[in-house]
Design brief:
MetI-like fold, mainly alpha, 307 residues
Amino acid sequence: MVGYAETIHRNDAQTASAIKAAFERTRSYRFWKDRIAVYFLFLCAVCVLAPLFSILGDLLTQGFSALNLDFFTKLPKPVGESGGGMANAIVGTLILLGIALTVGVPIGLGAGIYLSEYAGSRFAFVIRFLTDVMNGVPSIVYGIFAYTLFVVPMKSFSAWSGGAALGIMMIPIVTRTTEQFLRMVPSTLREAGLALGAPRWRVTIDIVLSTAKGGIITGVMVALSRVAGETAPLLFTAFGNRFWHSNLTEPIAALPIQIFSYAISPFEDWHRQAWAGALVLIFIVFLINLIANYFVSRQSKMFAGRK
């Protein structure tokens, strides 16, 4: 028995030694394989960020020098004259975004609630499919649609038609983000509300929506930043002007339209102002995304605390 035990012990020692030797042989290979994978992913991240920083660098170098008080307070000068600003376009952009919020948020919010709370119905599947299709539709198609739906019957370009075009573009983004964040709400909260005798619509409004409001606001901000820089829909609807806006049924100036018009002009001063307008527009989009990121982190912490 003693000899048998020694043989078993010797075999175990040999096996352990063989395993250790194999591990040592592959350690270097696995280390460099891991390093190569990390460096490759880092390179991919750099490739993603490089165009962004290149664009931001050009905007800062070309546009920052053109920013002054006149740019934010004065109207565009007549053709051929230097100076002036884009005050009307900045105000017009804010007006159009306000109209877009009024049009896109209620519809997108209602559709998102339906997709979340009545997800099993066949109609919900159709809405979800059409929403995904709308997310891939080019912006110029939205412009043509809004032109046919609003401009032709009204026989005039207007702020209403421009804001409505942007609002329609917001609907699929608001719908899908609302659905996703409502689904993140624990089902136990719904069950608790129903157990207290509250009707389902009251549970949805007072409990589910209240819990997911941070995520819903995030979706709205993301949709808003998505449409803030769109030019094609506004060319078909808002059309633009060079004066202060006084009526929502008339053409209205907007930064994307003004930038486009100045960029294709033959005047050097207008090119300079186009860079400045692009920088201001990027800043607006950047600010909206910062607000969205704040609500994302806040919502994530809230859901993490409930687990």
